Amino acid sequence: MHLKDKVALVTGAAQGIGKAFVQVLLGKGCKVALVDLNVEVGKASKDDFDKQFDEEMTIFIPCDVSNEEKLKDAFEKTIQHFGKLDILINNAGVNNEKNWEITVQINLISVIRGTYLGLDYMKTENGGTGGAIVNISSLAGLMPAAHQPVYSASKHGVIGFTRSIAMAATAGNYGVRINTICPGFVNTPILQSIDKEENMGQYSAYKDKIKDMMKFYGILDPPLIAEGLLKILEDETLNGEVMKITTKEGIHFHSYIPLPFQANK
């Protein structure tokens, strides 16, 4: 996909990985809707980008992605402002083991809902011009995380949903590619949440063990995750892929054993 003049919607766009995504998309000539719950930080990020790029290249839309109507409204505002949608990055996420329903709602349900909303606008059968959706998971979606069981479950769900809906997109000729990115530990505000009892609940007693894991695996910086995003968007052959990003191996893809009915294809 050539990214110049494409329109992207990024959730959780105000800081961390989301802001890094916006940075690289703008650098490639995309127009971007920044969708985020944090109004103050969101506006500040928009101001930062306006200093580097034409202010018409971005729009900030305050939104709680866990609210169905507000999420729908964010998509509608993006279409109204830019006239189309080519790229969707479902990036918004939280780490909350104490109020675990919030984690499932934001990390998984909102990703599913966002994907379906994106498909409504991008599917060729609906009059769209096709496009790409990238759902952000985590290495915790590929392995157990003893002290973050609900976070791990939500990220496992993102991978299962993404691989499955990508197969549906191929079977239905949607004209939309759907992939997922699974980073290791990344230097973002979510990483800092492990020190907070209001986030970790009963698992706050094990925060030192998580910090030991961070030392073992290392911590990534958001720009590397954004580099992975560009690879997925620009490579038209990628659909249903699970990209892993680690300090040891960098950007690479997870390998699965072919399903029996796919083995001879």
The CATH class: Alpha Beta
Could you say how many structural domains there are in total? 1
User: What is the ordering of alpha helices and beta strands?
Assistant: EHEHEHEHEHEHHHHEE
Beta-strand level of the residues, as a percent range? 15-25%
Distance between the termini: 25 Å
- Please count the helical segments: 9
Structural class: alpha/beta
**Alpha carbon gyration radius:** 18 Å
Going across the biggest sheet, name each strand in turn. Answer: 3-2-1-4-5-6-7-8
Number of strands: 8
Shape: globular
Keywords:
single chain, alpha/beta, globular, 8-stranded mixed β-sheet, about 45% helix, Rossmann fold, about 260 residues, 9 helices, 8 strands
Write a structural description:
The chain is α/β, with parallel strands linked by helices and 265 residues long. The chain has a single domain, classed as Rossmann fold. It is 45% helix and 16% strand. The chain is built from 9 helices and 8 strands. An 8-stranded mixed beta sheet has the order 3-2-1-4-5-6-7-8, with helices on both faces. The protein is globular and about 50 Å long. The two termini are 25 Å apart.
